[in-house]
Amino acid sequence: MTGLFISFEGIDGAGKSTHIETLAQAFRAQGRTVLLTREPGGTPLAEVLRTLVLNEAMDAMTEALLVFAARRDHLQQKIQPALARGEVVLCDRFTDATFAYQGGGRGFDLKVLSTLEQWVQGIDDGAKSAIRQPDLTLWFDLDPALAAERLASARVPDKFESQPVEFFSRVAKAYGQRMAEQPGRFARIEAANSREAVGQAVILAVQHKGYLP
Ligand code: TMP
């Protein structure tokens, strides 16, 4: 069985995390082994980097370098081995988040991000070179004003969650640009709908790709 890599994206407050477990259960019901993981994070080293990125003040380049360092470790230690074993990897955020948050939100150079993406996710088997990307990215698209309302009633905000709504408008726009550039990999989920409707949309998007019956 070949491995399957699915990422979940969206601005803070879009509600993606609650649907990851539901999708994991759907795959387990098919007899698949599922790895649930997240970025930044997923390995002991990457979790240490996550704590720094989410809590310490730093410039956009430092942030980008740290999330890509975390990603490198995560890919090497966890994601690639799981895919090689034929498992389903469900990852709460991946590189699109860097293009959205550091690129869109912080205004960091997208060309530099593309170079880092090539370095960190490059697969070179001699005959061909490619970039490791998710097979499918579920983008939970929500109006930033609505997301801010949801966040206001939730936990104590971290460094990103306490950003103003304009920051999230730029992040959301950058997600849209990523989807426009790589339409085959993305499925846009209307995240303003009820939890049940969003859950159904997630399953449908995965079925549409032929990954679930
Ligand atoms: P989470 O709260 O969904 O776990 O995500 C952690 C935060 O880190 C979220 O606000 C988005 C941010 N982030 C980046 O800024 N760049 C990245 O590359 C990733 C993966 C997350």
Beta-strand content bin: 15-25%
- Total count of domains: 1
Low-confidence stretches: none
Helicity, as a percent range: 40-55%
The outline comes out as globular
Q: How does CATH name the architecture?
A: 3-Layer(aba) Sandwich
Figure out the total of helices.
8
Structural class: alpha/beta
Detail the topology: elements first, then pairings:
Blueprint: E1 4-10, H1 17-28, E2 34-38, H2 44-55, H3 60-84, E3 88-92, H4 95-105, H5 110-121, E4 122-124, E5 129-131, E6 136-141, H6 144-152, H7 165-181, E7 186-190, H8 195-208
Parallel strand pairs: 1-3, 1-6, 2-3, 6-7
Antiparallel strand pairs: 4-5
Helix pairs in contact: 1-8, 2-3, 3-5, 4-7
The chain binds thymidine-5'-phosphate.
Residues 12, 38-40, 54, 67, 92-93, 97-98, 101-102, 160 line the site of thymidine-5'-phosphate (TMP).
